[in-house]
Write a structure and sequence with these properties.
Helix content: 25-40%
Strand order of the largest sheet: 5-4-3-2-9-8-7-6
Distance between the termini: 41 Å
Strand content: 25-35%
CATH superfamily of one domain: Arylamine N-acetyltransferase
Largest sheet: 8 strands, antiparallel
Order of helices and strands: HHEHHHEEEEEEEEHEEEEHH
Oligomer: single chain
Length: 272
């Protein structure tokens, strides 16, 4: 059984970032390393439910095992809370918060308070959020990547932050982040429901990997490769090509992918 120090030192080693006193430059390095190293994906979710009967996120140690040995990551329910734990261990003032999408509190984000400012941290939205996003701006913050544009709006009167996602100039998704401090236990029901047979992430495949200057996204039978300026989209012919694409671009073992998606319809859009 590892101590907390050993676990978080391992986390830092995986990210290839040293521990330092809290500061905006260090926080930025941590966020960029997390986004580049830990993908947004539901393959691990499907595979762990099928092979181990999982109905909730793995432990932090199991999460790190998945990153290090299987090129796994997770969805917002794993990536954001575990990263928040790392930040807290390093001395950052970080709060886990709920965010509303089509339903209340179906997304998790973090807010970091540092040097009198607040930053939105979201490493679980399959988005190029490489840097902490300041919440105190009096204007919109725009982040463009390929054909996607993410817009963080100024806080409303209740201190909430609206993030809108556009693709090809069309609004397709977004969320409303609420600043109230929450505990991961508050989301147990939402997380449990996300493993149900009808849940979106139990019927689709999605994995997005970010690298410096490019990203690869595979959503069902669509492969999208993006740079900050362009996006190239390729339709995969069948499940065989899908499995090969995931292994080639995202380094997740083909046997794991094949087993994970064997019984799912690969239908639906995670942004519906």
């Amino acid at each position: 059984m590892q101590t907390a120090a050993q676990t978080f030192d391992r986390y830092l080693s995986i990210l290839e970032v040293d521990a330092e006193p809290p500061g905006i430059e260090h926080l930025t390095r941590l966020v960029r390393a997390q986004v580049n190293r830990v993908p947004f994906e539901n393959i691990s979710k499907l595979w762990l439910r099928k092979t181990r009967g999982a109905t909730t996120v793995p432990s932090l140690e199991e999460h790190l095992d998945g990153i290090e040995h299987r090129s796994f990551g997770g969805t917002c329910y794993a990536n954001n809370p575990f990263f928040a734990q790392l930040l807290r261990y390093l001395g950052y003032d970080v709060t886990i918060c709920g965010a509303d999408m089509s339903k209340p509190d179906v997304h998790l984000v973090s807010i970091v308070r540092l040097d009198g400012r607040e930053y939105l941290i979201d490493v679980g939205y399959a988005a190029p959020f490489y840097t902490p996003m300041p919440r105190d701006l009096d204007h919109d913050l725009e982040i463009a990547f390929g054909t996607s544009l993410f817009v963080l709006r100024s806080q409303d009167r209740s201190g909430r932050s609206r993030l809108d996602m556009f693709r090809d100039k069309e609004l397709i998704h977004g969320y409303l982040a609420k600043p109230e401090s929450r505990k991961i236990e508050d989301f147990e029901g939402v997380i449990r429901n996300s493993y149900s047979n009808r849940a979106t992430f139990m019927n689709v495949l999605v994995v997005e990997r970010f690298f410096d200057g490019r990203s690869v996204r595979i959503h069902n039978l669509t492969l999208s490769e993006s740079t900050p300026e362009t996006t190239k989209t390729t339709q995969l012919a069948d499940r065989r090509e899908l499995v090969e694409a995931v292994e080639r671009h995202c380094e997740i073992d083909a046997d794991i992918v094949r087993e994970a998606i064997a019984d799912i319809p690969l239908q639906g859009d995670i942004y519906d």
